[in-house]
Amino acid sequence: MPVRRKVGNLLGLAVLTVLVDRPMHPYEMATVIRARGKDQDMEIKWGSLYRVVQNLERHGFVEAAGSERAGARPERTVYRLTPAGRAELEDWARDLVAVPEPEHPRFEAGLSVLAILDPDEAAGLLRARAALVERRLAAQRAELAHDRGETPRLFLLEREYDLAVGQAELDWTRALLAELLDGTFPDLPLWRSLHPPPSPPHPGGRDGRHR
User: Fold this and answer.
1) Residue with more model confidence, 200 or 24
2) Which pTM value belongs to this model?
3) What's the chain look like in SS3?
Protein backbone atom coordinates (compact mmCIF):
# COMPACT_ATOMS: atom_id res chain seq x y z
CA MET A 1 0.00 0.00 0.00
CA PRO A 2 1.24 3.52 -0.75
CA VAL A 3 2.45 5.47 2.28
CA ARG A 4 0.08 8.11 3.62
CA ARG A 5 2.11 11.31 3.40
CA LYS A 6 1.98 14.34 5.67
CA VAL A 7 1.82 16.39 2.46
CA GLY A 8 0.26 14.12 -0.17
CA ASN A 9 -0.35 16.67 -2.93
CA LEU A 10 1.94 15.82 -5.86
CA LEU A 11 2.68 19.52 -6.22
CA GLY A 12 4.62 19.08 -2.98
CA LEU A 13 6.75 16.45 -4.72
CA ALA A 14 7.49 18.90 -7.53
CA VAL A 15 8.39 21.65 -5.05
CA LEU A 16 10.78 19.41 -3.13
CA THR A 17 12.37 18.32 -6.41
CA VAL A 18 13.17 21.83 -7.67
CA LEU A 19 14.47 22.92 -4.25
CA VAL A 20 17.18 20.27 -4.53
CA ASP A 21 18.95 22.70 -6.89
CA ARG A 22 18.77 25.90 -4.83
CA PRO A 23 16.53 27.94 -2.54
CA MET A 24 13.61 29.62 -4.35
CA HIS A 25 10.54 31.70 -3.68
CA PRO A 26 7.18 30.15 -4.72
CA TYR A 27 6.88 32.12 -7.97
CA GLU A 28 10.30 30.87 -9.08
CA MET A 29 9.34 27.33 -8.05
CA ALA A 30 6.32 27.49 -10.36
CA THR A 31 8.44 28.86 -13.21
CA VAL A 32 11.01 26.07 -12.89
CA ILE A 33 8.33 23.35 -12.52
CA ARG A 34 6.70 24.54 -15.76
CA ALA A 35 10.03 24.87 -17.56
CA ARG A 36 10.88 21.27 -16.71
CA GLY A 37 7.47 20.03 -17.81
CA LYS A 38 6.66 18.59 -14.40
CA ASP A 39 3.12 19.94 -14.73
CA GLN A 40 2.69 17.45 -17.60
CA ASP A 41 3.97 14.51 -15.55
CA MET A 42 1.58 14.96 -12.63
CA GLU A 43 -1.73 16.64 -11.92
CA ILE A 44 -0.97 20.08 -10.56
CA LYS A 45 -3.42 22.68 -9.28
CA TRP A 46 -1.47 25.92 -9.26
CA GLY A 47 -3.94 27.67 -6.97
CA SER A 48 -2.76 25.48 -4.10
CA LEU A 49 0.97 26.26 -4.50
CA TYR A 50 1.31 28.62 -1.55
CA ARG A 51 -0.75 26.36 0.70
CA VAL A 52 1.40 23.36 -0.27
CA VAL A 53 4.60 25.32 0.48
CA GLN A 54 3.16 26.35 3.86
CA ASN A 55 2.29 22.72 4.65
CA LEU A 56 5.79 21.59 3.68
CA GLU A 57 7.20 24.25 6.01
CA ARG A 58 4.84 23.27 8.83
CA HIS A 59 6.06 19.66 8.65
CA GLY A 60 9.71 20.69 8.51
CA PHE A 61 10.38 19.68 4.89
CA VAL A 62 11.28 23.23 3.80
CA GLU A 63 12.30 26.31 5.75
CA ALA A 64 12.57 30.03 5.12
CA ALA A 65 16.06 31.00 4.00
CA GLY A 66 15.48 34.74 3.73
CA SER A 67 13.48 37.09 1.54
CA GLU A 68 13.99 39.17 -1.55
CA ARG A 69 12.31 42.10 -3.26
CA ALA A 70 12.29 42.93 -6.98
CA GLY A 71 11.42 46.52 -7.79
CA ALA A 72 8.03 47.55 -6.43
CA ARG A 73 6.87 43.98 -5.94
CA PRO A 74 6.02 42.71 -2.46
CA GLU A 75 8.78 40.99 -0.52
CA ARG A 76 8.99 37.27 -1.28
CA THR A 77 10.03 34.53 1.13
CA VAL A 78 12.76 32.25 -0.21
CA TYR A 79 12.57 28.62 0.89
CA ARG A 80 15.22 25.92 1.04
CA LEU A 81 15.06 22.16 1.37
CA THR A 82 15.76 20.74 4.82
CA PRO A 83 17.41 17.36 5.52
CA ALA A 84 13.96 16.06 6.50
CA GLY A 85 12.62 17.32 3.18
CA ARG A 86 15.36 15.55 1.24
CA ALA A 87 14.61 12.32 3.11
CA GLU A 88 10.88 12.73 2.40
CA LEU A 89 11.58 13.36 -1.28
CA GLU A 90 13.71 10.22 -1.59
CA ASP A 91 11.18 8.08 0.28
CA TRP A 92 8.34 9.46 -1.84
CA ALA A 93 10.24 8.61 -5.02
CA ARG A 94 10.84 5.04 -3.79
CA ASP A 95 7.14 4.66 -2.99
CA LEU A 96 5.98 5.98 -6.38
CA VAL A 97 8.34 3.70 -8.31
CA ALA A 98 7.99 0.50 -6.28
CA VAL A 99 4.35 0.41 -5.16
CA PRO A 100 1.68 0.12 -7.90
CA GLU A 101 -1.52 1.99 -7.24
CA PRO A 102 -4.80 1.61 -9.18
CA GLU A 103 -5.42 4.47 -11.59
CA HIS A 104 -8.72 5.17 -13.32
CA PRO A 105 -8.33 7.15 -16.56
CA ARG A 106 -11.37 8.60 -18.35
CA PHE A 107 -11.04 6.08 -21.19
CA GLU A 108 -11.44 3.21 -18.75
CA ALA A 109 -14.62 4.81 -17.39
CA GLY A 110 -15.95 5.19 -20.93
CA LEU A 111 -15.23 1.54 -21.75
CA SER A 112 -17.10 0.46 -18.62
CA VAL A 113 -20.33 1.94 -20.06
CA LEU A 114 -19.66 1.36 -23.77
CA ALA A 115 -22.59 -1.06 -24.01
CA ILE A 116 -25.05 1.83 -23.76
CA LEU A 117 -23.99 2.90 -27.26
CA ASP A 118 -24.80 1.12 -30.50
CA PRO A 119 -21.77 -0.94 -31.59
CA ASP A 120 -21.57 0.88 -34.92
CA GLU A 121 -21.43 4.23 -33.14
CA ALA A 122 -18.89 2.83 -30.70
CA ALA A 123 -16.71 1.71 -33.62
CA GLY A 124 -16.81 5.22 -35.09
CA LEU A 125 -15.82 6.75 -31.77
CA LEU A 126 -12.95 4.28 -31.33
CA ARG A 127 -11.72 5.06 -34.85
CA ALA A 128 -11.77 8.79 -34.07
CA ARG A 129 -9.94 8.23 -30.78
CA ALA A 130 -7.28 6.09 -32.44
CA ALA A 131 -6.61 8.82 -35.00
CA LEU A 132 -6.22 11.46 -32.27
CA VAL A 133 -3.93 9.25 -30.17
CA GLU A 134 -1.83 8.42 -33.22
CA ARG A 135 -1.31 12.12 -33.98
CA ARG A 136 -0.47 12.87 -30.36
CA LEU A 137 2.09 10.05 -30.23
CA ALA A 138 3.72 11.24 -33.47
CA ALA A 139 4.14 14.72 -31.99
CA GLN A 140 5.53 13.30 -28.74
CA ARG A 141 8.01 11.11 -30.61
CA ALA A 142 9.26 14.05 -32.65
CA GLU A 143 9.66 16.19 -29.54
CA LEU A 144 11.42 13.39 -27.66
CA ALA A 145 13.78 12.72 -30.57
CA HIS A 146 14.73 16.41 -30.56
CA ASP A 147 15.26 16.55 -26.80
CA ARG A 148 17.37 13.39 -26.75
CA GLY A 149 20.09 15.35 -28.52
CA GLU A 150 20.20 17.89 -25.69
CA THR A 151 18.99 16.11 -22.54
CA PRO A 152 20.36 12.98 -20.83
CA ARG A 153 17.99 10.03 -21.07
CA LEU A 154 17.83 9.91 -17.27
CA PHE A 155 15.64 13.02 -17.36
CA LEU A 156 13.38 11.77 -20.16
CA LEU A 157 12.27 8.45 -18.68
CA GLU A 158 8.77 9.65 -17.77
CA ARG A 159 8.21 10.74 -21.36
CA GLU A 160 9.41 7.36 -22.67
CA TYR A 161 6.93 5.71 -20.30
CA ASP A 162 4.11 7.99 -21.46
CA LEU A 163 4.84 7.06 -25.07
CA ALA A 164 4.88 3.35 -24.26
CA VAL A 165 1.54 3.57 -22.44
CA GLY A 166 0.05 5.60 -25.27
CA GLN A 167 1.24 3.09 -27.87
CA ALA A 168 -0.20 0.20 -25.85
CA GLU A 169 -3.55 2.00 -25.67
CA LEU A 170 -3.47 2.67 -29.41
CA ASP A 171 -2.67 -0.97 -30.22
CA TRP A 172 -5.46 -2.22 -27.95
CA THR A 173 -7.98 0.27 -29.37
CA ARG A 174 -7.14 -0.71 -32.95
CA ALA A 175 -7.48 -4.41 -32.10
CA LEU A 176 -10.91 -3.88 -30.56
CA LEU A 177 -11.98 -1.75 -33.52
CA ALA A 178 -10.87 -4.48 -35.94
CA GLU A 179 -13.01 -7.05 -34.08
CA LEU A 180 -16.05 -4.79 -34.30
CA LEU A 181 -15.53 -4.09 -37.99
CA ASP A 182 -14.93 -7.69 -39.08
CA GLY A 183 -17.60 -9.12 -36.77
CA THR A 184 -15.25 -11.30 -34.70
CA PHE A 185 -16.01 -9.58 -31.41
CA PRO A 186 -17.57 -12.52 -29.47
CA ASP A 187 -20.37 -10.56 -27.79
CA LEU A 188 -21.38 -8.55 -30.85
CA PRO A 189 -24.79 -10.32 -31.23
CA LEU A 190 -25.57 -9.65 -27.56
CA TRP A 191 -24.47 -6.04 -27.94
CA ARG A 192 -26.64 -5.52 -31.00
CA SER A 193 -29.61 -7.08 -29.22
CA LEU A 194 -29.39 -4.26 -26.69
CA HIS A 195 -29.99 -1.76 -29.50
CA PRO A 196 -32.80 -3.11 -31.73
CA PRO A 197 -33.65 -0.93 -34.72
CA PRO A 198 -36.75 1.24 -34.26
CA SER A 199 -40.00 -0.28 -35.44
CA PRO A 200 -41.17 1.08 -38.80
CA PRO A 201 -44.27 3.32 -38.66
CA HIS A 202 -47.58 1.54 -39.27
CA PRO A 203 -48.82 2.13 -42.81
CA GLY A 204 -52.21 3.12 -41.48
CA GLY A 205 -50.93 6.16 -39.63
CA ARG A 206 -50.23 6.87 -35.98
CA ASP A 207 -53.38 5.13 -34.68
CA GLY A 208 -53.19 2.25 -37.12
CA ARG A 209 -56.32 3.25 -39.06
CA HIS A 210 -56.60 4.22 -42.71
CA ARG A 211 -57.97 7.65 -43.35
Assistant:
1) 24
2) 0.79
3) CCCCCCCCCHHHHHHHHHHCCCCECHHHHHHHHHHCCHHHHCCCCHHHHHHHHHHHHHCCCEEEEEEECCCCCCCEEEEEECHHHHHHHHHHHHHHHHCCCCCCCHHHHHHHCHHHCCHHHHHHHHHHHHHHHHHHHHHHHHHHHHHHCCCCHHHCHHHHHHHHHHHHHHHHHHHHHHHHHHCCCCCHHHHHHCCCCCCCCCCCCCCCCCC
